[in-house]
């Protein structure tokens, strides 16, 4: 049972990281997704900046120890991403790239809604009856 819990937490952790990186683009379609994504992005930035231990990592390690699987003491990114998906020496570059993707998704969202607002304003101005003198 603890092995299943550890694996489930692992999958949730990967999903959370994917959401941190790409979730800003969801707000393009669903604007209400902006605030939850902003919270997730701030959390991710805080964990990386201050080298905090993510609660998901703590739960996974606890479940693995309970399942009799020792030796997992590195962080999630150190264990499953660095050196697996990319060489560890590129970590800083990948962190910057993630930041650029998140900020880019927010910039795209801002442009999209600014254009929508301008289009709405123009169509309202065109539909108003002409002013009488």
Note down, in words, how this protein is organized.
With 133 residues, this protein is mostly helical. It has one domain (2-127). The chain has helices at residues 2-22, 26-29, 34-49, 55-66, 76-80, 91-127. Helix 1 crosses helix 3 (34-49) and helix 1 (2-22) runs antiparallel to helix 4. The protein starts with a helix and ends in a 6-residue tail after the last helix. The model has no long low-confidence stretch (mean pLDDT 88). This is DUF2784 domain-containing protein. It comes from Dactylosporangium roseum.
User: What fraction, in percent, of the residue positions are helical?
Assistant: over 70%
* Rg (C-alpha, Å): 22 Å
Rounded average pLDDT:
88
Helix and strand sequence: HHHHHH
Strand count, sense and barrel status of the largest sheet are: none
How many separate structural domains? 1
User: Strand fraction band?
Assistant: under 5%
Tally of separate helices: 6
From the N-terminal CA to the C-terminal CA, the straight-line distance is 80 Å
Going by helix content, strand content and strand pairing, the class is: mainly alpha
Question: What is this structure, in a nutshell?
Answer:
Keywords: Membrane, Transmembrane, Transmembrane helix. The protein contains six helices and no strands. It is mainly α and 133 residues long.
């Amino acid at each position: 049972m603890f092995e299943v819990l550890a694996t489930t937490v692992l999958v949730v952790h990967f999903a959370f990281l994917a959401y941190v990186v790409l979730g800003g683009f969801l707000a393009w379609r669903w604007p209400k997704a902006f605030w939850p994504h902003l919270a997730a992005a701030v959390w991710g930035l805080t964990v990386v900046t201050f080298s905090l231990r993510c609660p998901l990592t703590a739960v996974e390690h606890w479940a693995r120890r309970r399942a009799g699987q020792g030796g997992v003491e590195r962080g999630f990114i150190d264990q499953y991403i660095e050196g697996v998906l990319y060489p560890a020496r590129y970590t800083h570059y990948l962190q910057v790239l993630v930041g650029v993707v998140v900020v880019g998704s927010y910039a795209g969202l801002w442009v999209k809604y600014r254009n929508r607002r301008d289009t709405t304003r123009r169509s309202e101005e065109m539909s108003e009856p002409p002013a009488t003198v």
